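Allow me, if you will, to draw on your knowledge of protein folds for a short while. I have a record of one protein: its chain in single-letter code and its fold written as discrete structure tokens. I remain grateful for any guidance, and I place the record below:
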Amino acid sequence: MGDIRQSLLPRDVLSAAKELLYHLDIYICNLVQSGRQPPQVDSKTLELVEEFILHAPKDRNTPGRRMSALQELQLLEIMCSCFQEQSRDTVRQLMFSALFSLQGNQADESRMGLLGKLVSMAIAVGRIPILECAATWLQRTHRVYCVRLAQVLVDDYCSMVPGSVPTLQNIHSASPRFCCQFITAVTTLYDLTTEELTPPLELLQMIVSWIQDDPRLVLITFLNTPLSGSQPISSLDVTPLGGLMRWCVKAPLAYRRDKKPALTNGSTENEPETGPLFSALHLSVLQVFMLLPNILNEKGLFGRLALLQMESLATLTSDLSRLLDQADKHTHTSSTDTHALSQLTLDRLAQALQVAMANGALLCSREDLRAICSRLPHNNLLQLVLSGPVMYYNNIHTPPLAFSPHAAHSPIASHPTHPTHPTHPTHPTHPTHPAHTSHTPLATHPSSHPQYPGQAFMTGMPFPFRPSH
């Protein structure tokens, strides 16, 4: 494409960009057909992209060219059509990479600006090939830029234009890969450390509905990615499970920062709907954990790959310790309410830890777990999880998630019993609808729930998921 620059210079800014996209498509098609492995766009072509599409000046003495708002909209429509009409995914992915892979130079800001507008338009007009390419971009790009893209989309569809959330919500069946990566990005962005970093209600409602409709949605990236070890530290997590768990556990205390009276379901007067939403999300996350044993076994990764990282868990417990200390100092709620919310937070942490360990999502020694939870105040359920053996479930038709997540005292397990039927850790349950299970604890003393005599800790069994090193 070395001779193309001279032909593009006399053209107006939109015509030059359109012409370059046409030649870029032909160039990448020929590159793929040549059989070169891996196919790679050369630096000269990337420079043309920066000059005529991203409008980065060729040198300091050359003034940058700029598009009007109308021209930029026309360029976005042309790009949507270009990706839609290209039938080969390999070509589309290479073209998207040539346009938007970050190069660590001045043009990156232009890349991010154009990318946000293109993905937002693709959502609005249903251009699935662009969303699939964006999913790959999110998987390969530094998390700092991933959360920037997520912020643009949240602003566009959850903040700026009232009533536009359904447009974003409806893409979950069309591009599950993009939705999975989007959830991972927004749970990384909104870590509940400040009021500004607390997810908007519309976003929370949408994500809860997505996961309730299809719990496997949060595993799409993991299921479609060859994995042999840890992801690069700079990338997004391979699943949003850690971020979703953080949301559910921190929500009862984090949503009190506006200093409004808190409700015992974990919400405030300003956000009465968030309590049930986080309860439903917590239940869904535990249900996803229950899907993992068969999936991990099929990939040969059971006991070898942790989907929850100890580093992020340590950060979560540190944040919880700080939030709990702050809750003790608040005077606008009664001590009874403060205690109930604190216990709800710790109960959810204990429930998530137990189910994650039992299903291979968390690989650690019991001693390591006790160490990172050492600063947390006493909680009966958490103490049981930290000291007892892992729970197994022996009734594959009754989910071990049958409890009320928003009840302040809904234990997963209490006194150990000997199960009445053999159990096997590699056979997950098939969760039923939460409406049928919201008031049954995971396992309690058999005398209190005789209809589930085998749902309790198995005694005399070693902790099976300790890492080999």
Q: What stands out?
A: Confidence is low (pLDDT under 50) at residues 259-271, 391-469.
